[in-house]
Design a protein that fits this description.
Blueprint: E1 7-9, E2 15-17, E3 19-22, H1 32-44, E4 48-50, H2 58-70, E5 80-85, H3 92-106, E6 111-116, H4 144-156, E7 160-166, H5 170-177, E8 188-192, H6 200-208, E9 212-216, H7 239-247, H8 252-262, E10 266-270, H9 274-280, H10 282-285, H11 293-296
Parallel strand pairs: 3-4, 3-10, 4-5, 5-6, 6-7, 7-8, 8-9, 9-10
Antiparallel strand pairs: 1-2
Helix pairs in contact: 1-2, 2-3, 3-4, 7-8
Length: 312
């Protein structure tokens, strides 16, 4: 089965491929690599590409997409591209210009999905993380309901086909859902989600409101020393995950990805390693792991290693 055929219907009628390619990298990785690996990801079958203004690589990602359109590998409508509104542009009057800036970098006419990247407003300006003399982030005050109205206008203007959120908890989602005069519900909520942080309650909430959960960090949290204690366990080395992978002659990464797919979660596989990119797409091509996987992993964060079963 072609990977682009395996899609989930969004609440606005559009479809999102259930497996996506994540393009975020730490600052030390040259942005030129985003061009090469995104192009490669499309060549091996990825049709869902996820990036953001804050990743500072949309120019390269857009170039990769356009090059694969130009050589006949794909058409524009084959690609599902997600961008995100950064926290310094949450003031309603800044939203459309932020999206237009991304479109200019990408040299595309529209994005398929535009998300509020985080629910934490920061001081408007060119800095991604504006800080004061004390080194602390400079916050802003914005009613996210007004930000959402500006996203709705972007959808109406044809700049994006769908709109959603990222890193929202259920209370923040409810604030949008309960907004008087709501025109479009968020189609998705993109959050960190993997067997150590399975987001089961948030997933249940999203499903009850016909909102798709999109998982980033699906192969384990970004292990930057700024964000993660280096002593924390490495997901892909977890003994239960490795045992399941060994039993089915698959990689732990494929097991982690399949776990999400079987829960109805759209999953982003991020890698700048071509061998792993090629391996990750196999989760859709081969149906890598059997149906018993979901019941084999304990649905309690940081308790995966205590699971009592490996696989049916």
């Amino acid at each position: 089965m072609e990977t682009q055929c395996q899609r989930v219907k969004l609440n606005d009628g559009h479809f999102i491929p259930i497996l996506g390619f994540g393009t975020y990298t730490p600052e030390e990785v040259p942005k030129s690599e985003a061009l090469e690996v995104t192009r490669f990801a499309i060549e091996v079958g990825f049709r869902h590409i996820d990036s953001a203004h804050a990743y500072r690589n949309e120019e390269q990602v857009g170039q990769a997409i356009r090059s694969k359109i130009a050589d006949g590998t794909v058409k524009r409508e084959d690609i599902f591209y997600t961008s995100k509104l950064w926290s310094t542009s949450l003031q309603p009057e800044l939203v459309q210009s932020a999206l237009e800036k991304s479109l200019k970098s990408l040299q595309l006419d529209y994005v398929d999905l535009y998300l509020i990247h985080t629910p934490v407003p920061l001081k408007p300006g060119e800095e991604i993380l504006p800080t004061g003399e004390d080194g602390k982030l400079i916050l802003d005050s914005v009613d996210l309901r007004h930000t959402w109205e500006a996203l709705e206008k972007c959808k109406d203007a044809g700049l994006t086909k769908s709109i959603g959120v990222s890193n929202f908890n259920h209370k923040q989602l409810e604030k949008i859902l309960n907004k008087p005069g709501l025109k479009y519900k968020p189609v998705c909520n993109q959050v960190e989600c993997h067997p150590y942080l399975n987001q089961s309650k948030l997933l249940e909430f999203c499903k009850s409101h016909d909102i798709v959960l999109v998982a980033y960090g699906a192969l384990g949290a970004q292990r930057s020393s700024k964000w993660v204690n280096p002593n924390y366990p490495i997901l892909l080395e977890d003994p239960v995950l490795c045992a399941i992978a060994k039993k089915h002659k698959q990689t732990p990464a494929l097991v982690a990805l399949r776990y999400q797919i079987q829960r109805g979660v759209v999953v982003l596989a991020k890698s700048y390693n071509k061998k792993r990119i090629r391996e990750n797409i196999q989760v859709m091509i081969s149906g890598a792991v059997g149906r018993g996987l979901l019941s084999s992993i304990l649905h309690k964060g940081h308790s995966l290693s205590s699971s009592q079963t490996i696989l049916e």
